[in-house]
Amino acid sequence: MAVDGLFNGGDKRSFSTIPECIDAVAADEIQIGVVPLENAIEGTVHLTIDYLIHQVRLPIVAEIVVPIKQHLLVRKDFTGTLEDIEQIHSHSHAIAQCHQYIHKNMPNAGIHFESSTGRAAEVVAASSANIAAIGNHLAAKTYDLNIYEESIHDYANNHTRFAVLSKRTEPISVTLPEEAYKTSLMITLPSDYAGALHQVLSAFAWRKMNLSKIESRPMKTGLGNYFFIIDVNQPYDHVLFPGVQAEMEALGCKVEILGTYPTYHVNPS
């Protein structure tokens, strides 16, 4: 849905996992990769962030926000009730987005995590058991499933941010109007500097640079070692950002630019 909304056609290729998609961009098997970054209900998709930071560093060239509607999907020959469903298959984030619905309506159904909601739909389509998937209308259409019940996610304002990754230097061609611009930074603090995070944030504050997100992630080098992902709501320039970087480096911080990019939204259909 994110790919179709942003590019409106063209050759597409699906991957079973987020790392496989990122690896394909790095290996030049595909020109552009689209991977989930954050869900409004479940928060950051840590696999994406950690893989981009620790394994394969690729620039973020765009961001697209997609409204997410999770439906309960069954085979077309299923004639039972919710109580007859023995298993629920989906991605862990989709399961979490529908936790209250599952708790109230199918408390005894076994939960099976799949690599994606699409893979969950595929599993249900190939099975003869009384099982269901959680996924969107596109998954239902692709695998010829019925939507047993629509919009079963626990909160109405369910959106997911996707990162568009590419090694290409030229701007990508998209079909949606640009809505805003954003710059993402990775900042590593010195381990022995009291008040460093406060001073880092002050470097943005006195320049009146608005931050839309700040999140810590482990460096994976030992307990207590973290880096920060900071999103700034403006494009990278050659005045404010170099000043911020110089100020932070004077504190002993390491600053890396993960991307400066336009943001887009897919309107709900």
TrEMBL record:
E.C. number(s) listed in UniProt: 4.2.1.51
Stored Gene3D superfamilies: 3.30.70.260, Periplasmic binding protein-like II (3.40.190.10)
Domain of life: Bacteria
Pathway(s) where this gene product acts: Amino-acid biosynthesis; L-phenylalanine biosynthesis; phenylpyruvate from prephenate: step 1/1
Annotated GO MF terms: prephenate dehydratase activity
Keywords linked to the UniProt accession: Amino-acid biosynthesis, Aromatic amino acid biosynthesis, Lyase, Phenylalanine biosynthesis
Annotated GO biological process: L-phenylalanine biosynthetic process
Catalytically driven reaction(s): prephenate + H(+) = 3-phenylpyruvate + CO2 + H2O
GO cellular component, one term: cytoplasm
Record domain ACT: where: 185-262
Entries under NCBIfam families matching the protein: PRK11898.1
Protein name per UniProt: Prephenate dehydratase
Organism per entry: Terrihalobacillus insolitus
